[in-house]
TrEMBL record:
GO annotation terms (biological process): assembly of large subunit precursor of preribosome
GO CC terms of this entry: cytosol
HAMAP family with a match to the protein in the record: DarP (MF_00765)
InterPro entries referenced in this protein's UniProt entry, alphabetically: DarP (IPR006839), DarP_sf (IPR023153)
Organism expressing this protein natively: Permianibacter aggregans
A Pfam match: DarP
Protein name per Swiss-Prot or TrEMBL: Dual-action ribosomal maturation protein DarP
Family per similarity comment: Belongs to the DarP family.
Amino acid sequence: MSGHDPFDDIGDYFDGEEEVSKSAVKREMHERQALGKELAELSEKAREKLDLPEQLIAAIDAYQKITSNVAKRRQLQFIGRVMRDVDIEPIEQELKLLRHGATLAAQQHHQVEQWRDRILQEGDTAINAFLEAFPQADRQKLRQLERSARKEAELNKPPASARELFRYLREQLSA
């Protein structure tokens, strides 16, 4: 028998740090690639709001210019590799804020549409309800816009006053 025990060296592999499994490394790599793809799909204006390193910006710009699917996949892998050296926590937070902002804007748009439709259908009762919720609004302007929008609808004219009412309501809701 040999005097060498193969398990004597096992302590050399564990130097106080926990070993990361291969599947955990792959999972993290795929998460970074998915984040990179999400960054690449953002508009340039939205990406400028994020504080991204130059190398990552260059990799994303290259990704957007590529048309081949295989080459795009390789470039995504490269973006994931570049992102290994980047702290992705702040980037994820900013993306979450961007997504949440878009949701809020859609909700506000929907609320303005509901108020406009309600004012056009109910008239003064809806105007009074709107003024209770938003006392800074001008009653006279609301009534004028409501009357002219109804008149346009009766005469089958383009809804210019309804659009103006929508803009005014949007201003009041955001004020």
